[in-house]
Amino acid sequence: MSFELFVALRYLFSRRKQTFIYVISLMSILGVALGVGALVLVLGVYNGLTTDMRDKILGANAHGIVMSHVPSAFEHDTPALLERIRASEGVTGAMPFIYTEVMLSAGGGVKGVVLRGIDPETAPSVLSMLTELRAGEARDLVREGTPGIIVGDELARRLGLFVGSRANLLSPAGQKGAAGYSPRIRPFEVVGIFKTGMFEYDSSLAFVSIPAARDVLGLPPGFLSGIELTVKDLFRADETAIRLAEELGAPFYVRTWMDMNANLFAALKLEKIGMFILLAMVVLIGSFSIVTSLVMLVMEKTRDIAVMMSMGATRRMIRRIFMLQGCIIGLVGTLLGYAFGLGLGWLLKRYRFIKLPENVYTLDHLPISITLSDVLIVGASAMLLCFLATLYPARQAARLQPAEALRYE
Length: 409
Hints:
- The chain has helices at residues 3-13, 19-60, 78-87, 123-126, 153-159, 199-202, 210-217, 237-248, 257-260, 262-300, 302-310, 315-351, 372-398, 402-406, and strands at 64-68, 91-106, 109-118, 135-136, 148-152, 166-177, 180-194, 205-209, 226-231, 252-256.
- The chain has 409 residues and is α+β, with helices and mostly antiparallel strands.
- It has 2 domains: 3-57 and 264-406, no CATH class; 70-249, no CATH class.
- The radius of gyration is 33 Å and the shape is elongated.
């Protein structure tokens, strides 16, 4: 053990003349611990909510979409195009789709919906929400007689629909007759109901088979809006998209989930930075207490400092003593904050004793997802603030003149 560390520990744990310095040191430790614990816990909740929202968005949407500047580009040899996309590096699944907006009418009223025509066989491998329907299965979309439709839970509740109910889809494109254009109306039977937890999807999204969507819209047999795909690495989807776009060439282009939800996740990231800065102020308050306790300790130990310098201790060694003492206070506070934040986070994740109203939020409990990177960044920030707080008191202690300090002793 070095001389500086030995003296710093001795000063920190030895009995002092003034109990008030003990109290300030304790408040410093508690301030740092509270700030670190709050940061770890709040960032864990933020990560949990963001992850849950991302999973729900990606459950109803693919990781990427292959589009075309020429609408008829998908009508030529679609199976071969699908095979090229699936064979591309990083792509794990692909599915053709049709996207449009229509009116859905039932006994409970009329509602505008986003209609998506999908392939019931390949869709569950691309859209995870179709594997966890509250009722029915995706393959029931293709059936004898009346075609099937899958609707969201909120939409079904609003229009009074359930599995087996009949509903009509009205396309504004319509058919041209002697009296002008008239809406195209087709009957459907509800074969499934899904619930994502996001009101936007549950209240205005419906799925039918691709042939049924073409029939409602009056589209040619080979028409497609695009091809949805999934990738191996979710967070490197942009790299896969660039590579796939180069392989396919014009007139095709690829958009990823990052592009389509850029504004949402940019806003969430900004909120995370704001919360970090706000809660870091708690750690900063604790570091101010470190300044106070060290300044008072320097005043109390003036005679000891003068004696050590008279015996050969350099100013650099004196400076290190008080810097180490402040860093030890910060380290103890950071470790206590870790214990508080990680412990409470584990309890919340394990027992879920904080419940959320399910009709307001996308889930019924407070989610926790604490990452190692966040924990390390919080700890490093706390230690940096505590280290900076030691600079002034340590500098003042090193500037002490032994002769002046011992003159009246």
